[in-house]
Design brief:
The complex is a heterodimer of chains A (265) and B (403). With 265 residues, chain A is an alpha/beta fold. Chain A is built from 12 helices and 9 strands. The two termini of chain A are 27 Å apart. The model of chain A has no long low-confidence stretch (mean pLDDT 96). Chain B has 403 residues and is an alpha/beta fold. Chain B contains 17 helices and 14 strands. In chain B, helix 6 links the parallel strand 5 and strand 6. In chain B, helix 5 packs across helix 10 and helix 10 packs across helix 12. Chain B starts with a helix and ends with a helix. Classes of the chains: A alpha/beta (265), B alpha/beta (403). The structure holds pyridoxal-5'-phosphate.
Chain lengths: 265, 403
C-alpha cells in the first residue's frame, strides 16, 4: 500500500476525510513555501500538493495566478521544486507535486518522475494531461514508483470516468465544479453527484477540490468524499499577511479550522 | 459522391495527431466539449445542407471566390518572378479569418449554443467573430491582450460597433497568448452554453483540423485560378505564419503537388539572435502550449517565453501542429522576417501595386521578395494576401514618421 493510501486509511479510521493542502512552490518565497508547508503538516494537514509554477496557468483563477507570478519572479524552476519536495518530505507525510504538462514534458518525463522519487515525493497530479496522451508518463511513473493522479470533472461521461480511473494510482481528483481555481461562496451541487458516479468505477479514494473555501464547506464535502483539497483559501490568507511569520500563523489557524471541518457527521 | 468539405477532410489520425505533434493537453473538463465539437463537425462534413449553407455564405456574405491578382510592378523587386496575390484582404471584414469563423459559427448554431467567445491579437479574428455573432444572433465576448487593444484600437471599436464585448486581458504578457489563456478560463467555466471559436490552427484537437479545412477554400480556389491563368501549377506558394491558419489554408490543397514549394514566413521581430521575436518554427523547440504539442518559444523549465513582433497577429510564441509536422517532414520551409524587412515590404507593395497589406501579410511579401530573387524570372509564386492594412495605418504612420 502506498503512503497515500495509508493517509486515507488513517483518516477513514478516524471517521473523517483527509485534508489536502495546495501551495505553489516558491510562494511567497522558496524558503517561505517550505516553512508554510511544514507548518501545514503540523497543523492537521495530511498531505500537501506542491504546485509547479507555470507561465500559462489556464486552469487557475486570479488568486493562484497571482501566487504563481510571485513564484516565477522568485525563479522557482524544477530544480527548486525538487529541493522543496525534499525538505517538506522530511516531515514523513506524503508530498505530491501538481504540474501543468508543459514543464514536465520539457524537463523530461522520466527525469521528472525519477527526481520526484529521489526527493522523497510520492505522487504527481497532472491536471491537463488526459490519460489518452499519457503512455510515456504511465511508464515513467510506474518505473519510478510515483503515484499518478488524474482529474475528473462534472462534464466527464461515464465512459471517460472509466478510462481515467483505470489509469489513476493514489487517489482520484474530482473537480467539484466546471471552472477555474478560486474561492466560492458555496459547494457546487455537482460535486456529490460526481463522487457518486466515480465510485462506480474505482475502489480508490476520491478527493474533491476546486472552490473549497472554509471549514463549513470542507465539512459538507467530507460527508461524501474521502479527501478535501484546499488551495486558493491558503494563498488568499498568505497574500493578506505582511510577512512570513504572520503568514505561517494565519495558515496554521486556517489548517486547524479545516481539520475540524473534515470530520464526518 | 463526396461533399466539398469531405474532400478537404483528411484527418491524419482519429485523435488529431500530425506525427508526434498535435493531440489534446487540456483539463478533463474540456474533453466532452472537444468531443462534441468533433462529432458535430464530422456530421456536418457529410451533411449536404451544411455544405450548402457554408458555401453560400462564403459566396454571398464573404464575397468568395477572392480574386487572384497578378502583381506585375512588384514582380521587378522579386527577381522578375511572376507573382500573384490571393486576395483574402478583399473578403468581408478584411482578412482570411472570416472563412473559419463562418464554418465554426454554423457549427455553434448546430450545437445549440448561444454564446461564443474568442481571442484576438490583431483584432481581425475578433472582428470576424463579432460579425458572425451579429449575423447569427449570438452573444459574443472577445478576449484581447491589453497591449493589443492599444496598437489595434480601430478593430476594438469595430468589434464594439458589432455588438461584442471586448475584455482587455492584463495578465502575463498582455498579448495574444494571454488572451487565449483567458478565453480558455471562460470556456472551462461556461462550456455547456458556450463555443470557443478559436481563431487559428493551434490549440487542442479538433481545432487545427477544422480550422484548416474551413480555410482550405483559399488554396482550392488559388490552385484553380493559377491553372486558369498560367496553365500550370506554381513554383511556390507563400504565406505569413502566426498560428498558421492562412498559411495552412493556402498550403493544404498543394501538399500532394510535390513540385510546388511551400514557404512560410514568421515574425523575427528585432532578429532571432536578439531573443525579441515570434519565429516559433525557426527559433523554438518542441513543447506544449495551449493544449497542443508543437514548436514553442520556451525555456528549459517549460515556461513560455514572451514573443515580440511589430505585428500583433504574428506575436504568438506557439504555432499550429501541422506546420511543425510539415517543417520536420521537409515538405514546407519556414523563414524568419524582421520588423524592418516586413515594414519595407509593407511600403513596397503599397507603392508598386496600390495595395496596403496587413503588417502580418507584409512578412509574406518580404519573404517573397527574397524567394523570387532565388527562384528567378521563370518562377511563378502565389502569395496569400491574408489581410488589408487599414488596421495598421497608425502603426505604419509611426514607423515611417508620417505624422
Ligand atoms: C491579416 C492577418 N494575417 C495573418 C494573421 C496570422 O494568423 P494565422 O497565422 O493564423 O493566419 C492574422 C492574425 O491576426 C491576420 O490578421
Amino acid at each position: 500500500m502506498s503512503s497515500i493510501h495509508q493517509v486515507f486509511e488513517k483518516a477513514k479510521s478516524e471517521n473523517r476525510a483527509a485534508l489536502i493542502a495546495y501551495l505553489p512552490a516558491g510562494f511567497p518565497t522558496i524558503d517561505g513555501s517550505i516553512a508554510i508547508m511544514q507548518e501545514m503538516l503540523n497543523s492537521g494537514v495530511d498531505l500537501v500538493e506542491i504546485g509547479v509554477p507555470y507561465s500559462d496557468p489556464l486552469m487557475d483563477g486570479p488568486i493562484i495566478q497571482q501566487a504563481v507570478e510571485v513564484a516565477l519572479h522568485n525563479k522557482t524552476g524544477i530544480n527548486e521544486v525538487m529541493h522543496i519536495v525534499k525538505e517538506v518530505s522530511k516531515s514523513g507525510k506524503p508530498v505530491l507535486t501538481m504540474s501543468y504538462w508543459s514543464p514536465i514534458e520539457k524537463w523530461g518525463i522520466d527525469k521528472f518522475a525519477k527526481q520526484m522519487n529521489q526527493s522523497g515525493g510520492v505522487g504527481v497530479i497532472t491536471p491537463d494531461l488526459p490519460p489518452d496522451e499519457s503512455a510515456a508518463w504511465i511508464t515513467a511513473t510506474d518505473e519510478n514508483e510515483i503515484d499518478r493522479v488524474f482529474v475528473v470533472a462534472p462534464s466527464s461521461s461515464d465512459e471517460r470516468l472509466k478510462l481515467v480511473t483505470n489509469k489513476v494510482t493514489g487517489f482520484v481528483y474530482a473537480a467539484s465544479l466546471m471552472g477555474v481555481t478560486g474561492t466560492r461562496s458555496e459547494v457546487s451541487s455537482r460535486a456529490a453527484e460526481l463522487v457518486n458516479r466515480v465510485r462506480k468505477h474505482t475502489q480508490l479514494p476520491i478527493a474533491v477540490g476546486l472552490g473549497v473555501s472554509n471549514s463549513d464547506q470542507a465539512h459538507e464535502v467530507a460527508q461524501f468524499a474521502d479527501g478535501v483539497i484546499v488551495g486558493s483559501a491558503f494563498v488568499n490568507v498568505i497574500l493578506d499577511q505582511p510577512n512570513l511569520k504572520d503568514s505561517i500563523a494565519a495558515v496554521a489557524q486556517l489548517c486547524k479550522d479545516f481539520a475540524r471541518g473534515v470530520h464526518k457527521g | 459522391m463526396t461533399t466539398f468539405l469531405q474532400d478537404l477532410h483528411k484527418i491524419d489520425d482519429q485523435t488529431g495527431h500530425f506525427g508526434q505533434f498535435g493531440g489534446r493537453f487540456v483539463p478533463e473538463a474540456l474533453i466532452s466539449a472537444l468531443d462534441q465539437l468533433e462529432a458535430e463537425y464530422l456530421k456536418a462534413v457529410i451533411d449536404p445542407k451544411f455544405n450548402e449553407d457554408f458555401q453560400n455564405l462564403l459566396k454571398d456574405y464573404v464575397g468568395r471566390p477572392s480574386p487572384l491578382t497578378e502583381a506585375k510592378n512588384f514582380s521587378k523587386h522579386a527577381g522578375g518572378a511572376r507573382v500573384f496575390l490571393k486576395r483574402e484582404d478583399l473578403n468581408h471584414t478584411g482578412s482570411h479569418k472570416i472563412n473559419n469563423v463562418i464554418g465554426q459559427a454554423l457549427l455553434t448554431v448546430r450545437m445549440g449554443k448561444k454564446r461564443i467567445i474568442a481571442e484576438t491579437g490583431a483584432g481581425q479574428h475578433g472582428v470576424a467573430t463579432a460579425t458572425a455573432a451579429a449575423l447569427f444572433g449570438l452573444e459574443c465576448i472577445i478576449y484581447m491582450g491589453e497591449e493589443d487593444t492599444v496598437r489595434q484600437s480601430l478593430n476594438v471599436a469595430r468589434m464594439k460597433l458589432l455588438g461584442a464585448t471586448v475584455v482587455p486581458v492584463t495578465s502575463g504578457t498582455k498579448t495574444l497568448k494571454d488572451a487565449i489563456n483567458e478565453a480558455m478560463r471562460d470556456w472551462v467555466t461556461n462550456v455547456e452554453t458556450t463555443h470557443y471559436l478559436l481563431g487559428t490552427v493551434a490549440g487542442p484537437h479538433p481545432f487545427p483540423t477544422i480550422g484548416r479545412n474551413f480555410h482550405s477554400i483559399i488554396g482550392v480556389e488559388a490552385r484553380q485560378q493559377i491553372l486558369e491563368k498560367t496553365g500550370k501549377l506554381p513554383t511556390a506558394v507563400t504565406a505569413c505564419v502566426g498560428g498558421g491558419s492562412n498559411a495552412i489554408g493556402l498550403f493544404h490543397p498543394f501538399i500532394l503537388d510535390k513540385d510546388v514549394q511551400l514557404h512560410g514566413y514568421e515574425a523575427a521581430g528585432d532578429g532571432i539572435e536578439t531573443g525579441r521575436h515570434a519565429a516559433t518554427l525557426s527559433g523554438g523547440t518542441i513543447g506544449i502550449l495551449h493544449g497542443t504539442r508543437s514548436y514553442v518559444l520556451q525555456d528549459e523549465n517549460g515556461q513560455t517565453l514572451p514573443s515580440h513582433s511589430i505585428s500583433a497577429g504574428l506575436d504568438y510564441p506557439g504555432v499550429g501542429p501541422e506546420h511543425a509536422w510539415l517543417k520536420d517532414s521537409g515538405r514546407a520551409f519556414y523563414h524568419p522576417i524582421t520588423d524592418t524587412e516586413a515594414m519595407d515590404a509593407f511600403s513596397l507593395l503599397s507603392r508598386t501595386e496600390g495595395i496596403i497589406p496587413a503588417i502580418e501579410t507584409a512578412h509574406a511579401i518580404a519573404g517573397t521578395v527574397k524567394l523570387g530573387k532565388e527562384l528567378g524570372k521563370d518562377a511563378v509564386i502565389v502569395i496569400n494576401c491574408s489581410g488589408r492594412g487599414d488596421k495598421d495605418v497608425e502603426t505604419a504612420a509611426k514607423w515611417f514618421k508620417l505624422t
